[in-house]
Amino acid sequence: MTIGIERFDGVALLELRRPDQMNAINDAMRTGVPRALRDLDSDPDVRAIIVAGSGTRGFCVGADIKEFREKESAIDFRKRQKASAWIESFDTVSKPLVAALHGYCFGGGIEIALACDIRIASKDAIFALPEVNLGLIPGGGGTQRLPRIVGAGRALDILMTGDRISAEEAYRIGLVTRLSEDQESLRTDALTLAAKLAEKPPTALAYVKETVRSGGELPLKAGLGLERDLFALLMDSDERREAALAFKEKRKPNFS
After folding, report:
1. Where in the sequence numbering do the catalytic residues fall?
2. Would you list the DSSP string of 107-174?
């Protein structure tokens, strides 16, 4: 199995499981991950999802170069990419996605992380988008998602040099938003954060994702309109009423 799923109280851990290959992405992973994400997103018992890599060496080093086909045409490769609905499948998940990153996080590994909502890294994490050194560019959203997160200038520096970035530097530029001391702490911190998110009102969280992600593609006026529309829907929701009642009764709200 190239992926595995563990379930906790309201939280699912989706783990890339090719530790001997530092979780390099192969065709089985490209088809298995989207399927797993669809299943978890439709599971009412799952309220938040952690994406992690197995083993101690790294989260994911990107595509498995051994699976590259020397004589495959650009058209054939594009068809294979489209058929697997690969990293784009993260964009359709309505639940919070937390990337827990350790060790090597290269190429497609960063692109998976960029497609998640929140990124936590242990201090041993090392990041790079080295595709330019192979005569390529990122093919899983790196050129599009990275500048939206760290800005165009920093993104061009990272993409054009292929240089490695430390966890501390990744935190400084906003590539990750939280740091853990070590790999053991990383798992604990990711589970703690995901459990916290799992207790939040799910529709409100989904609307936060929708407004932030869709708003980035819209003119400001249209984005503000979307925000107002979803705000109005939530004002008339059971979640909002439960939150107000819980506040009045001085108790913890129950959004299950």
Report:
1. 111, 131
2. THHHHHHHTSSEEEEETT-EEE--GGGGT---SSSHHHHHHHHH-HHHHHHHHHH---EEHHHHHHHT
